[in-house]
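Practice record 12: protein with adenosine-5'-triphosphate.
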Amino acid sequence: MSHDAAGESGTAHAGNNFLKNLIAEQIASGEQQGAVVTRFPPEPNGYLHIGHAASICLNFGLAEHFDGACRLRFDDTNPDAEDQEYIDSIQADIQWLGFEWDGAVRYTSSYFDTLYGYALHLIDAGLAYVDELSPEQIREYRGTLTEPGRDSPYRDRDPAESRALFEAMARGEYAEGAASLRAKIDMAAGNINLRDPVIYRIRNKAHHQTGDKWCVYPSYDFAHGQSDAIEGVTHSICTLEFEDHRPLYNWLIAHLPVPARPVQYEFARVNLNYTITSKRKLRRLVEEHIVDGWDDPRMPTISGIRRRGYTPGSIRTFCEMVGVSRSGGTVDTAMLEHAIRDDLNTHAARAMCVLDPLKIVITNWDEDRVETLEAAGHPNRDDLGTRRLPLTREIFIEAEDFRESANKKYKRLVLGKKVRLRNAYVIEAHDVVKDESGRVVEVHCTYDPDTLGDNPADGVKPKGVIHWVSATHGKQALVRVYDRLFAVENPAREAELLDGLNPFSLTVHKGCWIEPGAAEVAPETRLQFERTGYFVADRYDHAVGAPVFNRVVALRDTWAKIESRGE
Ligand code: ATP
Ligand code: MG
């Protein structure tokens, strides 16, 4: 397992969960012999999201803990929505999270021959039949939770006939929906999944891995357990909605000549408030250009979270904090934000950046004078070195850090009062220059040369400290301040998904000023802009000399303020 150096905070998977405990018991009792083998089985029909991260941490974490193996298997039984782009992004995301799958990447589609053979096996054993009811009729015959289903008129057809028909289906001699292969189990079963489930259907569609070879495709249920068995998976872990499929999973394993007997276990999905974890809905945001692609920094996708500046370690820590349970629930996004804040507080070097600049002229500072001050890279990490901060006659401060008059609660620069420039001298404001509209465009100050690391001689300590950047030696930057994509706690519950969007999820600050060293960092470098928040140099748009930063997270949780922000 590889780790992102900046991302190590906490020990992922140190905690216990019910599956870890269960496997430990199975090993102790001798029920589990040999290596524990798990798998992560994404369907390549979208990018991975934070819910998938939970499943990845669980499956890879268990394998790691028990010194077993975790495989990556693309569950690619539905050629409709699947795409190579998704296959590539999923692999990149897993690797970025710091996990390595065992052996080669696997594909359910590479077992299509074997699965087809298994289907013939069931037919020959009288345990599957070709049904010529339409998909609608099949649904109608299936019954309800309170009523048993009805037998299809094709249910008792001769196995030899079914075999011939299934082979004809596979040769492409039927239209989509004209016939399907169903397992012959029990139309009166209380569990609807056992009412002769469809295990193969016709899809006249090329597949991204197998091309035109197949026009019949196995159902999820038929493919999944058998693929687990083929790969020697011991613990097939999925989410709770598959609990009712477990009897079918077991029935198929019991009736097929599979090489192993995997067992399915379920855990609750991880959902986050203020966002959505459904690939279908996320795809909609991408397709309707609500966001700037799957990896938009506001997306709950792993690639979006990465671009937002989260570290792999913070995501693993978050998954560890959430834990693994069998009772669902929604996790507070604040927990994810806490994980990255904690990580970056320890690991991110400090810098100064002014997002909304106001010019200060230090009138008792010579025009050409440049004094290079030193500041710590991090308040308590010597290993992060020091920064060089050029101080000049003209500097920028944050516009909101100056007022012509203010009450005592305002601890920043006020006309006629003093404030400390962070890592530098104390200045005092004397005059303002205004434009025609009366807006302050420049503030004239004097500095006190005896206040570098010292209080003014009059013993009056300035109340505030503000950040600043040299107007002549600083660099211009573009900074994107991101906030939550949705303003409502449960966007999936909105009548119209888009109604829940947060109109303030992105604010672009084009004319920012940043201390020179911070403009030189490599893409994906994370920094704390002092007093402002945690930021990351954008993975794609940032370049040395043309800095572009994304806000990862605010210094403190300011989310509660959103309610009043729109007014
Ligand atoms: P989606 O609804 O986003 O399409 P899915 O279950 O269809 O999710 P898959 O690609 O089939 O997506 O998921 C791969 C694995 O990740 C499965 O084992 C699935 O159970 C697990 N998984 C998906 N979503 C979550 C989630 N929110 N929490 C935990 N595990 C999840
Ligand atoms: Mg799925």
